[in-house]
Design goal:
Radius of gyration: 13 Å
Oligomer: single chain
Shape: globular
CATH class: Alpha Beta
Structural class: alpha+beta
Number of domains: 1
Largest sheet: 5 strands, mixed
Order of helices and strands: EEEHEEHEEEE
CATH architecture: Roll
Distance between the termini: 27 Å
Helix content: 10-25%
CATH superfamily: Beta-grasp domain
Length: 119
């Protein structure tokens, strides 16, 4: 079972293959934003991966990060926890001014993932 370390929160056992956004909300119990419901449309679920960053990325995530001009971050809705990983939270409900974190994300990556490498 992979370990997810969330800076300033703790380390948690996570079911292998679970979406990172769900691991943050369900296993780490943090108020991670996911305003679009985890569908790679908004970038509110971004995190900084500080250890164990996956070498693969969905085409949707790569395109959305490029569209928004974002570097050094990943979208938690597009990542699977397959190995030990450490992340720094960036987008939380607290202090965001939003009424809630967003609609519950599906258990599988949306849209249907097409994988490529991060380089």
């Amino acid at each position: 079972m992979p370990k997810l370390t969330v800076e300033n929160v703790g380390t948690f056992d996570v079911e292998a293959g679970k979406r990172l956004v769900l691991a943050l909300v369900e296993d780490a119990a943090v108020d991670q934003l996911h305003a679009c419901g985890g569908n790679c449309k908004c970038t509110t679920c971004r995190v900084a991966v500080v250890g164990g960053e996956p070498a693969k990325i969905t085409v949707a995530e790569k395109e959305k990060l490029e569209e928004k001009g974002l570097t050094g971050v990943r979208l938690s809705c597009q990542l699977l926890v397959e190995d030990d990983m450490a992340v720094q939270l960036i987008s939380r409900l607290e202090g965001s001014g939003r009424p809630d974190s967003g609609p519950p994300p599906e258990t599988s990556i949306q849209p249907e993932p097409e994988w490529t490498t991060t380089d």
